[in-house]
Amino acid sequence: MFGFEWKLALGTSNHAKRAAVVSATGVEPICHAVPSGVPDQPLTEDETILGAINRAKFVLEAEPSAEIGLGLEGGLMYDQVHTNQWYLFSVCAAWNGSQLYLGKGLYFPIPNEIGEKMKLGGTELRHIIDALSNTVDSNHKDGAYGLFTEGRITRRDVFREAVIAALTPFQSSFYKAN
Ligand SMILES: O=P(O)(O)OP(=O)(O)OP(=O)(O)OC[C@H]1O[C@@H](n2cnc3c(O)ncnc32)[C@H](O)[C@@H]1O
C-alpha cells in the first residue's frame, strides 16, 4: 500500500475506476462525474490523454478541498507503424493545481474489427463488450481486459497501475527537485 494520506478527488463515479484508486492508494476518493471534454469514445492517444487531464482539472475545481484531482480515461488508438493493430489503453492524470503527471497504463490489443467499428461511430466500446460478455455495464466491471483474458487482467488492475504511476512523483522523495 502507498501510505497515502492526501485527500483525493476523482472525476468519475465509475466503479472500476473508483476501485482502482482505492486499491492503488488505500484512500476513498471523493467522486464527481465531470465532463472529459473529448468524445465519449476517444480514438487517439491525444484525445484519451486530454480527456484524463480535463477530468483531473475539472474535478479539482469541483472539489477544492481535495489536494489532488485524478482523471481516468480509457481510449483506443491504432498503431499504424509497427503492428497495424487497434489497442485499448487506460490513462490516469494527476493534478494538484500546479503540477500535472500522467500514468499511461497497459496497451492491450483488441480485435481490429472492433476498432474499425468504433471508428465508424455510432456506438461505444462498452456496448460491444456488454454484448460479447453477455452482461451490462462491463465498463464498471472487469471490462474488455477481463473478457479477453478470461479475468487474468481487469479494468481495475490496469487503472490501478496508471494511478500509482501518476501519483508517485507527488509522493516519492526521488522527484523532489521537480
Ligand atoms: O463513467 P466514465 O468515467 O465516463 O467511464 P467510461 O467507462 O464510460 O468511459 P471512458 O472514457 O473511460 O472510456 C471510453 C469508452 O470506452 C469504453 N471502455 C473503455 N475501456 C473499456 C473496457 O475495458 N471495457 C468496456 N468498455 C470500455 C467506455 O465504456 C466508454 O464507452
TrEMBL record:
The lineage of its organism: Bacteria, Bacillati, Bacillota, Bacilli, Bacillales. This is inosine/xanthosine triphosphatase. It comes from Paenibacillus roseopurpureus. GO terms for biological process: nucleotide metabolic process; thiamine metabolic process. Its EC number is 3.6.1.73. GO terms for molecular function: ITPase activity; metal ion binding; nucleotide binding. PANTHER family: NON-CANONICAL PURINE NTP PHOSPHATASE_PRRC1 DOMAIN-CONTAINING PROTEIN (PTHR34699:SF2), PTHR34699. InterPro entries: ITPase-like_fam (IPR029001), NTPase/PRRC1 (IPR026533), YjjX_NTPase (IPR050299). It catalyses: XTP + H2O = XDP + phosphate + H(+); ITP + H2O = IDP + phosphate + H(+). Residues 11-170 form the Non-canonical purine NTP phosphatase/PRRC1 domain. SUPFAM superfamilies: ITPase-like (SSF52972). It holds the Pfam family NTPase_I-T. Its cofactor is Mg(2+); Mn(2+). Keywords: Hydrolase, Magnesium, Manganese, Metal-binding, Nucleotide metabolism, Nucleotide-binding.
